[in-house]
Amino acid sequence: MVGAAGTRDNNTLGHLAALLSILIWGTTFVSTKILLQSFTPIEILFFRFIIGLLTLILIYPRRLKVNLRSQEIVFAAAGLSGVTLYYLLENVALSYTMASNVGVIICIAPFFTAILAQFFLKGESLNPNFFLGFILAISGIFLISFNGTATFELNPIGDLLAVLAAFAWAVYSILTRKIASFGYNAIQTTRRVFSYGLLFMLPTLLFFPFKWELGRFANPIYLFNILFLGLGASALCFVTWSFSVRLLGAVKSSIYIYMVPVITVVTAVIVLHEKITGMAGLGILLTLMGLMVSESKVAFKQKI
User: Fold this and answer.
1) Rounded CA gap, 130 and 291, in Å?
2) Where does the chain cross the membrane (predicted)?
3) Domain residue spans of the chain
């Protein structure tokens, strides 16, 4: 009985950690939109992860000693996929295709995660409920993204980049589950991932417009928003997401990604005073139903 209660408590903590991560990630579009007035996408990305890395070092300065070289490779791959590739591909995709396209396509990441888990993780089996939930959620996300007015236009380059971004996040989710099995401190592992992500990001600064004009942060609005992205969306959320993946598994945690468009719409109503149309309202309902269906009867065994 104690073991069962402990498992339920761990599951609850895992769900809360995933929900907190998604709640913050779903609101980052406001901060990014504000910062884009004076910063390029690569500048925002680089500065936020620098802040995130420095924050984690201050919170837990103890150096991580990796036991095996193979584990170091996993950390490097996680930094490349979850920090460098995911965000760069997403940002570049937005320059070629509509934001609504990217919003829908990115949300197929849980599907990629589920497929990869079948090959690389043990004990994360699926049943038809996962796929039924996926169909419901994606249908809802379509309605939310296009809000009953926009049309889905295929832009091969941008849409393909968005697909690759979703795949990169799926790879990161699988690697996060692997990292969780190493038994290291979550803050230390996240810090390691950030370090590799920034390392792989450095060469890209040569190909994208980037300026070291820190004086722009003298504007309190810009300073607040970059701190929100660095402290909240990066330092905090990557740690809580890692914690969630450790407790729930890669696939079950990734299902929460369906919530991002819902949170984005609600945030837009609160912050930007936008209105929710009937179509968007139906989309929110379908997305939440898809989340519940996917979560309800997916069979997981927490082992690797």
Assistant:
1) 9
2) 12-36, 42-61, 73-89, 101-121, 130-148, 154-172, 193-210, 222-243, 255-273, 279-300
3) 2-296
CA-based Rg of the chain, rounded to a whole angstrom?
A: 19
Beta partners for residue 25, in sequence order: none
Give the whole-angstrom CA distance, residue 256 versus residue 22: 7
pTM of the model: 0.82
Cβ partners under 8 Å of residue 149, min gap 6: 277
- Which has the closest alpha carbon to 171: 80, 49, 261, 105? 80
Phi, psi of 300 (to 5 degrees): -125, 140
CA 278 to chain centre: 28
Within 13 Å and on the Cβ side, how many CA atoms surround 158? 18
CA distance 113 to 108: 9
Tokens of 215: 């004086």
Residues 6+ apart with CB under 8 A from 49: 83, 194, 197, 198, 201, 230, 234
Q: Give the integer Cα–Cα distance in Å for 258 and 284.
A: 10
**Cβ neighbours of residue 237 under 8 Å, at least 6 residues apart?**
20, 21, 24, 25
SS3 state at 283: helix
Question: Look-up: residue for tokens 């570049």?
Answer: 92
> What own/partner pairs with CB < 8 Å and gap ≥ 24 does 274-279 have?
277/147, 277/148, 277/149, 278/148, 279/143, 279/146, 279/147, 279/148
Helices (H) and strands (E) counted in the chain, each on its own, are 15, 0
- What angle, 0 to 180 degrees and rounded to 10, lies between the N-to-C axes of helices 69-79 and 186-201? 60
Give the pLDDT confidence of 200-247 residue by residue, as tens digits.
999 988 888 888 888 898 999 999 999 999 999 999 999 999 999 888
Q: How many CB atoms lie within 10 A of CB 272?
A: 10
124 beta partners: 300
Query: What is the rounded average pLDDT of the residues 17-37?
Result: 84
